[in-house]
Write a structure and sequence with these properties.
The structure holds two protein chains of two kinds. By secondary structure, chain A is mainly α. Chain A contains one helix and one strand. Chain A is elongated. Helices cover 41% and strands 17% of the residues of chain B. Chain B is an alpha/beta fold. Classes of the chains: A mainly alpha, B alpha/beta. The interface between A and B is large, with 42 and 56 residues.
Amino acid sequence: MIPYPWSRGLFLWGAPLWVSPEADAAELEAKRLELEGLLNQLTAQADEAVTRRW
Amino acid sequence: MSSRWLKPVERWFKLTVVPPAGAAVIRALGRSMRIETRGQEHVDRLYREGKRVIIAFWHSRQLMMPLTYRGTLAHILISQHQDGEIIARIVERFGFRAVRGSSTRGGVEALRELIRLGRSGVDLVVTPDGPKGPAQVAKMGVIQLARVSKLPIIPLAFGCSKKNSSRVGTDS
């Protein structure tokens, strides 16, 4: 995505996601899905925030 | 002009002219925009505790990310493709370092290098969907990296108004 000059932008930082060193395959897959969900949520949230007036 | 001459000229242009121009465009764009930052308290808290992090964002949102980094030194995973070389040279102008590799090429070596760097006390930056995609689907590499390095993953997003849909560096 390339922003237009003079557009509004938002950097949105999320909460940390920790992965246990002892995590098994199922746990790793759950973490992968969690990260995917967090990033999608955060990205959608950032888009929505700059689309609306703020 | 024959392609024999065109190739080196194209290469020179891409690797010598494009990177400084790209960095200048990013800075100029950033100055022209009204940019807000939210949620930074999460990463700032970790920094205050002396921890280092793995910063993760979707590949399509990478362009302006050099402007929001809050730590001291970060190594960024960038593909070995020639477009990756351009991106590496752009981010180096912002003070970042590049680790070259992706799940397509040089991934194992790059992951090993990232683990070593993560343990040495620097931040790591990855795009979990990688340059080849599928877009917005996280690969397992970043989770493995977090597991072995014991660093937390900090998700990061960027959005802008009146955006167009062109993806930057989709083939890098």
